[in-house]
Amino acid sequence: MPGPTAPLPLPLPSWRIALPHSTAAVPLARAMVRTALAELEAPADSDTAELLTAELVANAVEHTPGGSPIELVVELLADGCQVEVHDEEPLPPGGLGPGPGPTCPDPWQEHGRGLLLIRTLSSACGHRRTDHGKAVWFTLPARPRPA
């Protein structure tokens, strides 16, 4: 007779929302991350999450074909949160792969600081292929609880 089995762990809470493929997606994504982290009672820093999410969404809008869907996923982790931005472009973003990324953007260029911010301010970041393109993600650790 088999013994009792351990209960399966419950899936961690998450939010998922489709975003418009326009610059309007950036403030919407910031608001969604702020709301999701508050709703999920995530212990991660919401200001940093908003900033990094804005960078990922802006990149998705700029570097993917117009009209293709963009999706934002916010997931509560046991030790913080993870934010993903999904798009239909399968090519990986430059600067988020394994190994050292660019460390000093050209000060005369208008672009090039977003991925550096993500690499610097997140506890981990990267990208992965999906069935419909890719997901670019970052994780933030839990903030220390006030004493």
Mean pLDDT over all positions: 84
Number of strands: 5
Q: Which strand-content bin applies to the residues?
A: 25-35%
What is the percent of helical residues?
A: 25-40%
Structural classification? alpha+beta
N- and C-termini, Cα separation: 49 Å
Write the H/E string, N to C: EHHEEHEE
Compute the number of helices.
3
Largest sheet report: 5 strands, antiparallel
Radius of gyration equals 17 Å
Strand arrangement, major sheet: 1-2-3-5-4
Low-confidence stretches: none
Brief descriptors of the model:
single chain; 147 residues; alpha+beta; 3 helices
In short:
Helices cover 28% and strands 26% of the residues.
Description of the molecule:
The chain has 147 residues and is α+β, with helices and mostly antiparallel strands. Helix content is 28%, strand content 26%. The protein contains 3 helices and 5 strands. Strands 1-2-3-5-4 form a 5-stranded antiparallel sheet. The longest helix is centred in the middle third of the chain and has 18 residues.
Strands, helices and their partners?
Blueprint: E1 14-19, H1 25-39, H2 46-63, E2 70-77, E3 80-87, H3 114-121, E4 124-130, E5 133-141
Antiparallel strand pairs: 1-2, 2-3, 3-5, 4-5
Helix pairs in contact: 1-2, 2-3
